Amino acid sequence: MVNPRDRALRPPIRRSWLRLRLGKAYYAGRRYLLWCSPGFQWAKERRETPLPCVHFQHATPLLRQLRGEEMELQRNKITNLRLAVARLNGLVLYPGETFSYWRLIGKPTRRKGYLEGMVLFLGRIGSDVGGGLCQLSNLIFWMTLHTPLTVVERYRHSHDVFPDANRTQPFGSGATCAYPHRDLMIRNDTDQPFQLCLRVGASCLEGEWRAVKPPAYHYHIVERNARMDQASWGGYVRHNELVRQVFTLEDKLLREEFLFSNDAIMMYNPLLPEI
Question: What is the DSSP letter of 74?
């Protein structure tokens, strides 16, 4: 059973409309102050010409087979992804600079061309302008784990939405986003510039981290201590821990690095019905 002292695993509390608006305004204000802070060097330069060496590349499908209304939201998501990718593609992250997902993309609005896409809010699937951009933050975060770049800020998903069918990445390896306060921030602590290259293809969202020099290591993300528990309030909670293995180019394991642990409320029943 899940430890009842872990309040983060309980169902979300339903707040009043006013409480939600005030809370959002407070955290948005804090985020805008952070973006004005002289303590950060923000990445902003973009280049059309890609840097020569690929450090990691990945692609994720644009569409899942869902119901009719949800398929329309997914098609809208592709429009949203194209707009966001246009703001990020070619970004160069110089040594000492920090990448901020939302600082570069800006607020998704209808005026900018963003459409209603699928979102998860307080444990419920709904729609909102700019919905679906979590797929892009998930992709960037997953690729970053396979580079020497440093993740400064990342928020995990509080709910596990879909079962593991056709899942190619470990549970909990994504990064949720909500403008502007749930951001994804990445810092370059290396001695060379990195470049983020993104593309919305015919069927997949595609990305690469590139650099001036070839990679000195390669990385593998492994899942540990995976389990599913029934919580005291009746729902199910999923837990795991992710570890990064660092290898030489000759596949010799150098070390293991603990990344983070994940706990999420499951939005599906993990138990198969009896036949």
Answer: H
Please, which residues have CB within 8 angstroms of residue 199's CB and are 6 or more apart in sequence?
85, 89, 205, 206, 207
Q: Does residue 73 contact residue 132 with C-beta atoms inside 8 Å?
A: yes
Global pTM value: 0.91
Across the chain, mean pLDDT equals: 90
Alpha carbon dihedral 141, 262, 168, 72, in 10-degree steps, equals: -80
Where do the domains of the chain lie? 40-215
Burial tier of 69 (Cβ tally within 10 Å: 0-12, 13-18, 19+): exposed
pLDDT of residue 69: 63
Mean pLDDT of 236-249: 96
* pLDDT tens track for 35-80: 999 999 999 999 999 999 999 999 999 998 766 568 899 999 999 9
Residue pair 195/143 in contact by the 8 Å Cβ criterion: no
C-alpha 123/C-alpha 11 separation (Å) is 8
- SS3 assignment, position 240: strand
Q: How far apart are CA 218 and CA 245, in angstroms?
A: 8
